What we know:
alpha/beta, seven-stranded mixed beta sheet, single chain, globular
Amino acid sequence: IVLLDLCGTLYSPNTTFDFLNRYVYPHSAYYRNVKKVMGGLPGKVVNKILFSAFHWDLYRVLACRSLKGKSQEALVQLAEDYYRDVLVTSSLEKVHQLLDTARLNGNRIVLVSASLDFIVEAVARHLGIQEYYSSQLAYKDGICTGRFAVDLLGRKVELCLSKEINLKATTVITDNLSDALLVKSSDEAYIVSQKKHQDFWKRIQNVKEIYVY
């Protein structure tokens, strides 16, 4: 079983924020204010504390509120545009090579990402990945409420256990520091890493290879 991350792994951007910055920021005063407040030092400190303690990204939660009122149909179409206009030129080729090899070897491919549902669905569809899990926004009558129904951030191990995925039989491919427990629980892992995080990953015994950018 190959557990594959999306943001910073298959593609270089953080897809949630990159999508919001491209398609929401120009039209939403609310989102612009969120970026201003949470991008300042106090906001960054508060967000870091909350994430360290609870794996709760306040910035992300507030930013996604800017999607309130948008139809699910419109978001799906924007995700198609985003894939075509941005992601196809942002591929991390080494990871796509690993994906191709895994397929040739007959592995079960599972895309597991905390990114937004409509983005992950678009990527999975274009890459031909049948099994995928993502954070889920809440919708009412086809309209986004701006809130999460399911948030996978920092909760991938819980997801795998709920889906009866045997972590000891998995290969994990990720860049996320928040996936450390998932990596430690796996059989082996391939890591995409910033240079400054190399030492963090080197301390985990079952990391097979680190690709530094």
